[in-house]
Amino acid sequence: xxxxxxxxxxxKSLLVSIxxxxxxxxxxxxxxxxxxxxxTGYVSFEQLEPGQIRNQLVDVELTANFGCYLEKYEQNxxxxxxxxxxxxxxIWTGDEYATDYRYxxxxxxxxxRKTLNAMAENTSNQILSDPVLLxxxxxxxxxxxxxxxxxxxxDGGFTEKEFEESTIPYYIDIGDKTNMNIGYSVLFSIxxxxxxxxxxxxxxxxxxxxxxxxxxxxxxxxxxxxxIESDYASAQSFDKNDETKMGKxxxxxxxxxxxxxxxNNKIMWAYQNTVTHRTNGVKTGTTYNVVFFxxxxxxxxxxxxxxxxxxxxMLQRTGSMFPWVIVGYSDELKKMYKSNREQFLALRYNTxxxxxxxxxxxGRTPIQPY
Length: 370
Fold this sequence. Notes:
Number of strands: 15
């Protein structure tokens, strides 16, 4: 029993574990380079040759640009207004002394419009402006951004060959350096933690960690493992994968990949809980649960079942085998349970011997509440 449950819990945890590992590797791996530049320092953009330009964090001392080729904005249709979100300028690589350079792009927030437009005017008059200090990440131009970038040159008289020889399809995405450092560090950390969580889940599954709580539940209930093995073997299952089973001594269930067990002689109350899900007023589904209130447990135990028939089947067995359990729901019972627990327990729990009966093979209606 225990080895089978260990294997089942490991198998059940594998999919989530693998997803976490892949996601963690992707996120941490993608931002590991960014973290490297944050620790060692941003690269000076002007010192990079065209062939060295790739996805990396850079500091820029911008003294020239060749005008804005793209303005992005958000449209407010309700008020018929628009707000500029990004401006894209054409710049060149290297410094003013570079002999091997290419044109590429720079994305800045609209607050830089006045400064960079004045710089573009100086550049057209062959005047270098005072440096504007910027920081950002080099990214590849794609989609419409690249299309507009190319049109800027072809509309200006460049041939296809001249465009390919004179440009590189990259842009510097300018941002606040402190915010970038924090953001990329947080993203790397999230990736690392996600990766670690996936690995820990696998280690936990291999070592039997998902059945550790079950051993604790059994010990707390005062049963030996051999007795529970027999009880589990004869327990009635309520789903295809044996994730919810009710024996005479304990009710066994799986929460995620963790296997747990409820001592039946401590169950005070059980009823069906049905939840109807709606989206914008339209019914999208229904979930069915059986709720157990157990003496000594701070919170109720809610077990998900596939349908109403299964819920009623579980309650039928509960009512037939455990006469000390109140089966069914009413507002009066809820009020009594919360406000006068002793009165509630006097209905059945404290008036019946907690000795399980044989399962009701005649399919009789479960014992109803007072």
